[in-house]
Amino acid sequence: MQQATILVVDDEAPIRDMIVMALEVAGYNCLQAANAQDAHSLIIDERPDLVLLDWMMPGTSGIELVRRLKRQELTNRLPVIMLTAKSDEDNKIQGFDSGADDYITKPFSPRELIARIKALLRRSGPEAPEEPIAIDGLLFDPISHRVSINDVPVSMGPTEYRLLEFFLTHQERVYSRDQILDHVWGGNVYMEERTVDVHIRRLRKALSVDGHDRFIQTVRGAGYRFSTKVAEQG
């Protein structure tokens, strides 16, 4: 089985070298870039399977690069893990809102980094072909890996795609954040429950065309559910 290729983007060479060494020992192929411009060129030319992206870099920041990647059709499904010394919750939320799929604060252990990479690649990998699911103008097609609302394509990241797939295949049931983490993130112990809220918000934004975000309902004190029925007030 061919090993995944990972692009490591950091302006500090010693950090890049340390990460690349750990990744190569774990069997991954590695690419390196010292800035966002070089990283973007490598992404277009080499098509890596995942990007490890430093937040703070001279010139274009990691946050600006991930926003650019998520805006472009060619790269909007590319998994991105932010690496940063910024550990405040607000910074994490900003990272997720910008389009990052995971967020690791420095310093971190190589074992944790490898575990998160494996989890993200696992949930971003190709799914077995299934039948399309259509609900009230929302079309989820796992064969072409596309989502549309009333024939208009809907752009979303790999995590939101898997979250939507989970909800569509488990309708009308309430799931706690813990349960959603287990199902969608594959039981990755490093994830926080707050991560679910961030991705729910991003999924709702993607589905806001013609009010389809109403299907993703918050059940106070319990979690979330996907329902075509009108949410109860309370």
Quick overview:
The chain has 234 residues and is an alpha/beta fold.
Structural notes for this entry:
Strand 3, helix 3 (about 60-70) and strand 4 (about 80-85) form a beta-alpha-beta unit. The strands form three sheets. This protein has a five-stranded parallel sheet with strand order 2-1-3-4-5, sandwiched between helices. The chain is about 40% helix and about 20% strand. By secondary structure, it is an alpha/beta fold. It is built from eight helices and eleven strands. The protein has helices at about 15-25, 35-45, 60-70, 90-100, 110-125, 160-170, 175-185, 195-205; strands at about 5-10, 30-35, 50-55, 80-85, 100-105, 135, 140, 145-150, 150-155, 215-220, 225. The protein folds into two domains: about 5-125, Response regulator (Rossmann fold, 3-Layer(aba) Sandwich), CATH 3.40.50; about 135-225, Winged helix-like DNA-binding domain superfamily/Winged helix DNA-binding domain (Arc Repressor Mutant, subunit A, Orthogonal Bundle).
* CATH topological fold name of the largest domain: Rossmann fold
Overall mean pLDDT: 85
Strand content: 15-25%
Give me the count of strands.
11
List the quaternary state of the chains: single chain
The geometry reads as globular
Structural class by SSE content: alpha/beta
Low-confidence parts lasting 5 or more residues at pLDDT below 50? none
Percent helix, as a range, is 25-40%
CATH architecture of the largest domain: 3-Layer(aba) Sandwich
The rounded Rg comes to: 18 Å
